[in-house]
Amino acid sequence: MDKRISPISKLFLVIVFFILYAPIFFLVFYSFNSGGTMSNFEGFTLDWYKELFHDVRLLIIVLNTLVIALLSALISTVVGVLGALVIHSVKRRQTKNTLLSLNNVLIVSPDVIIGASFLILFTMAGIKLGFYSVLFSHIAFSIPIVVLMVLPKLMEMSPTLIDAAKDLGANRWNVLSKVTLPFITPGIFAGFFMALTYSFDDFAVTFFVTGNGFSTLSVEIYSLARRGIALNINALSALLFLFTMLLVVVYYFITQRNKPKGMGVRK
Fold first, then answer.
1. Shortest CA distance to 234 belongs to which of 17, 19, 27?
2. What single-letter DSSP state applies at residue 214?
3. Which DSSP string corresponds to 141-168?
4. Which domains occur in the chain, in start order?
5. Measured between alpha carbons, how far is residue 48 from residues 29, 52, 203 in Å?
6. For residue 30, which of 253, 264, 229 has the smallest C-alpha distance?
7. b/e code 225-247 from CB counts within 10 Å (16+ = b)
8. Could you tell me which of 136, 144, 260 has the C-alpha nearest to residue 194?
9. What's the CA gap between 165 and 29, in Å, rounded?
10. How far apart are CA 200 and CA 188, in angstroms?
11. Distance CA 189, CA 144 (A)
12. CA 205, 207, 210, 212: dihedral to nearest 10 degrees?
């Protein structure tokens, strides 16, 4: 069977990637424009990046965004792993499918509905909108993502591994810590990085639950863009793109390191 890619398929891939990445590179390119506009490139400058790093308020917002993303990803990973273990341990098929459906509903639900729901919840509960409202919201919509990342690894695990561990005298904690968790580690890392990315990029939910005096990068970029085109937005977006690429590279190396040896394709 000939597995070579046809010229038409290659051309289609080039067009798709061009459509996806051309606006990003256009944005990054003009972040070095000394002219101050995105219509005519007059010369190379780093002034917009210098202006960005001298903006104390924006640096605080970057710090807020990182703290929210890291905390929500960490907490949602712990809760999501526990949830995946519980769902996997359910023996009754109908109950398991019901739990999976409830988990998937949160993923496919529109962000506007989720954001409005959290806004109503926090308002009725008397919770002040700000850091904690954003954190709780990000944890809530990240947990189902982690569950979906971890469950396939649990399903791949052979029951004989657990039976062998029990035959050797391992208790439940030993089975969990020395057999199950090491086996599903790639899924845990995948869930963590997915939750981190979703939290870092989220706008719709965050827009509803952000109060006065607290903001994240997605909401701040939206506010800056509404005032007009400024190349410091380009500089900020370029740095965010580099940060995202860094996360992808780190995740790739982690998955490669955790990949079992001898998994190569035999010719």
1. 27
2. -
3. HHHHHHHHHHHHHHHHS-HHHHHHHHHT
4. 55-258 (1.10.3720.10)
5. 12, 6, 24
6. 229
7. eeeeebbbbbbbbbbbeeeeeee
8. 144
9. 56
10. 18
11. 15
12. -170
CA distance linking residue 151 with residue 154, whole number of Å: 5
Contacts of 71 (CB under 8 A, 6+ apart): 135
Distance between CA atoms of 136 and 52, rounded to whole angstroms? 29
pLDDT per residue rounded down to tens, the chain (267 residues): 455 667 788 888 889 888 888 888 888 888 888 877 777 777 888 888 888 888 888 888 889 999 999 999 999 999 999 999 999 888 888 888 888 888 888 888 888 888 899 999 998 988 888 899 999 999 999 999 999 999 988 888 877 877 787 777 777 888 877 888 888 888 898 899 889 888 988 888 998 998 787 888 888 888 877 776 678 888 888 888 888 888 778 777 776 765 655 444 343
Contact 35, 41 (CB under 8 A): yes
Taking the C-alpha atoms of residue 29 and residue 235, their distance in angstroms, rounded to an integer, is: 9
Contact between 180 and 150 (Cβ < 8 Å): no
- Amino acid present at 79: V
pTM attached to this predicted model: 0.80
Least Cα distance to 64 among 10, 157, 118, 135 occurs for 135
Over its C-alpha atoms, the chain yields an Rg (Å, rounded) of 23
Distance CA 221, CA 233 (A): 7
Burial class (CB in 10 A: 0-12, 13-18, 19+), 217: buried
Residues 192, 247, 185, 152, CA torsion sign:
positive
Q: Which two tokens stand for residue 247?
A: 């996360």
Question: Which pair of tokens denotes residue 143?
Answer: 């947990």
Rounded to whole angstroms, the Cα distance separating 32 from 18 reads 21
